[in-house]
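step 4 of 6: structure.
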Amino acid sequence: METQKRTITLKDMSGRSVEVTMWGDFCNREGSQLQGLVECGAFPVLAVKAGKVNDYSGKSVGTISSSQLLINPDLAEAHSLRQWFDCGGRDASTQSISRDFTPAASRNEIRKTVAQIKDDSLGMGDKPDWVTVKATVIFFKTDSFCYTACPNVIGDRQCNKKVTKSDSGNWLCDKCNQEFPECDYRYLLQLQIQDHSGTTWATAFQESGQEILGCSARDLYMFKENDDPRYTDILIQCLYQQYLLRLKVKYETYGDEGRVKNTVAKAERVDPSAESKFLIDYISRLTASY
Ligand SMILES: [Zn+2]
């Protein structure tokens, strides 16, 4: 008889995913139950106890006879994972640890320190400079972190212009010249970032704001409006965390004044393992050039 095998992918708030392979009886018991849940649109939490970690070109987990698979267990970790998932984690991009990943150096990344943004006069050319910094978020400007955006979809693009509340209580878009009963909320998040060389300000818009906070602008706005403790929890969880930030650096003028503006194009939490590989690769290229 052919050995039964079923492979699933798990992800969590680390921004990583891992493959879990179920063997034998696990396929028909927990495996079928999981498949049923996934097919009807539920995303069950799965705890794997006593799984075997395989270390062949990346890490994966397999069941052995003494393994236990717990579906939607009543554990604190499972509840916080569920909260994260429902609050934007579902759409968060993940990197698989079950496949060998490309080291950052070969992705044509230009690493800079915060001080180098200024010292190397980045953003002063005709075109913006694109660089990656490894930095810690030390401050979120929270008095206004998002704006009310026009939900109107024109073609395949959302208008996204700022809308204002009209006398009728609807949201008015000057560009579309239309009123809407509901508006969208989009991030316009100002944050201060720091590394060993200095500090600077950066702006994150919708996608990168969500990548940093792991929560949609609408949810965060609602939490704040309703004095929901999740508002503070989400911000505290991201403060003093290290991120790899892909920045678009460009000098911009506002009236008579000008300054270099850093826009976050992509944000991901620093993964110690991937970062170590990057540094080892970087050091070996440095020594090779002598
Ligand atoms: Zn509009």
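step 5 of 6: annotate
 - Helices lie at 25-39, 76-86, 114-119, 206-213, 217-225, 230-238, 272-288.
 - DSSP finds seven helices and 18 strands in the chain.
step 6 of 6: archive
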